[in-house]
Specification:
- By secondary structure, the chain is of the alpha+beta class.
- The chain has 4 domains: 19-131, no CATH class; 140-152 and 262-304, no CATH class; 157-248, no CATH class; 310-396, FAD/NAD(P)-binding domain (3-Layer(bba) Sandwich).
- 41% of the residues lie in helices and 15% in strands.
- The chain is built from 13 helices and 10 strands.
- The strands form 3 sheets. Strands 1, 2, 3 and 4 form a 4-stranded antiparallel sheet that branches. A 3-stranded parallel sheet has the order 5-6-7, covered by helices on one side. Strands 8-9-10 form a 3-stranded antiparallel sheet, with no helix packed on it.
Length: 397
């Protein structure tokens, strides 16, 4: 696509009234549009376009739509529909006359995001931060993490197996691969059997239906792979790998696949009462302490631990303290075990397991404070004291 043409904003039409003159000048979107220096984006993103081909959409339009998308938390399709209905959206993106048609196809938003990349969005964020000027100059800031949810349905085994079956049939029909059986009618019946699977009367039938769906998907994939030519196998190698990974994963596996079209999505539990599990990516947000202005944002590809060191206090001296510490460590947390006993889990001498348990704790590089009691719990540290000498100490938390 060639570089977009920038219309002359100073030239008005005598046939149509200026849209800006008909709107409330105190509206927040109009005030924001006046504060943003749109020429920065023109200079920054113009080199990303070619000088040949079909003229692309205006840079201000695409940047404005991207800002509105994140401000209103809308999908590309809904945003484009509301743009036609909302004159304030149109003025924010640089229109001087009311438009009756869609500004672009929703897929153009995806192409624009790929064109500017993460560096382009960092530039947009920098411009939005610069608008506040003096308000962002504070000595302290707040950093917290949240979940950036993906627009995917709640993943279930039955749902994923049906998707794999549908994708495999599309591949077979596209490549003209003959199948001994498509299983389409059976899959439709099995879909009904998986409904209301938590009901006691339906539980056994639903489990059998899920197992059968898995068998059908695996059988269909193997048949298609056997009948593919070498170049076809190379073309669909990535997709077949995802299908195989989905079919092989088990309930307790790490790094599970939750979506075929969003394979980087992972599951998180942030302790919310209304939503136990969320699917997406973890995002870190940095804000100023007093004014609450966002001055930084970062998304993480992996579900890394975002808290402080977890301190496990064991004063019953049985075996649960070491078990909890090991579980937290294997989940990727930094763990410190504080116990009032002179060794880890002394009760397990009765079962001849103490040496093995303590060796396992040390192998995992878990910090151990033996013969210590907790005297005070602070925001970022815990004060301990020796049970024999009362000598104080500090444990980072």
């Amino acid at each position: 696509m060639s570089k977009p043409k920038t219309p002359n904003a100073d030239q008005s039409s005598f046939l149509y009234p200026d849209l800006l003159d008909q709107l409330d000048p105190k509206h927040l979107l109009l005030q924001l549009a006046r504060k943003i220096d749109w020429s920065i984006f023109e200079a920054e993103f113009s080199p990303l376009y070619s000088h040949r081909g079909k003229p692309s959409k205006r840079i201000r339009l695409m940047v404005g739509l991207s800002i509105l998308k994140h401000m209103e938390n809308l999908s590309d399709e809904v945003l484009i529909q509301r743009w036609v209905q909302n004159p304030y959206y149109q003025v924010f993106t640089g229109e001087v006359e009311f438009q009756w048609q869609f500004p672009c196809d929703p897929s153009d938003m995806t192409y624009f995001r790929k064109r500017i990349g993460s560096e382009g969005f960092e530039k947009i964020l920098a411009v939005s931060i610069g608008i506040h000027q003096e308000k962002i100059r504070e000595d302290e800031m707040s950093i917290d993490t949240t979940v950036q949810e993906k627009n995917i349905t709640f993943p279930t085994d039955a749902k994923q197996y049906r998707k794999i079956h549908g994708h495999l049939l599309k591949i077979a029909r596209k490549e003209n691969i003959g199948l001994s059986r498509t299983y389409e009618k059976e899959v439709k019946k099995l879909k009904l059997h998986t409904r209301f699977s938590n009901h006691p009367k339906n539980r056994k039938k639903a489990r059998h239906a899920v197992r059968r769906l898995k068998t059908i998907s695996g059988r269909l994939q193997r048949e298609i792979q056997r009948r593919m030519r070498a170049e076809q196998c190379a073309q669909y190698a990535e997709k077949m790998g995802l299908y195989q990974r989905m079919l092989k994963q088990k309930r307790g596996d790490k790094n599970k696949l939750y979506s075929l079209h969003e394979s980087h999505v992972y599951c998180m539990s942030k302790g919310k009462a209304h939503q136990r599990y969320e699917f997406g990516t973890k995002a870190s947000i940095t804000t100023t302490r007093d004014s609450g202005i966002v001055i930084g944002a970062l998304a993480f590809e992996k579900n890394i631990f975002d808290g402080h060191t977890v301190v496990v206090f064991d004063d019953d001296n049985f075996y649960m303290g070491a078990v909890i510490a090991e579980k937290l460590k294997l989940d990727g947390n930094e763990v410190t075990l504080v116990t009032t006993a002179p060794e880890v889990s002394p009760w397990t001498h009765n079962t001849l397991e103490q040496q093995r348990i303590q060796a396992r704790v040390l192998e995992l590089d878990i910090k151990v404070f033996t013969a210590h009691n907790i005297t005070r719990v602070g925001t970022d540290e815990i004060e301990v004291s020796c049970v024999y000498t009362d000598k104080p100490g500090v444990v980072a938390a």
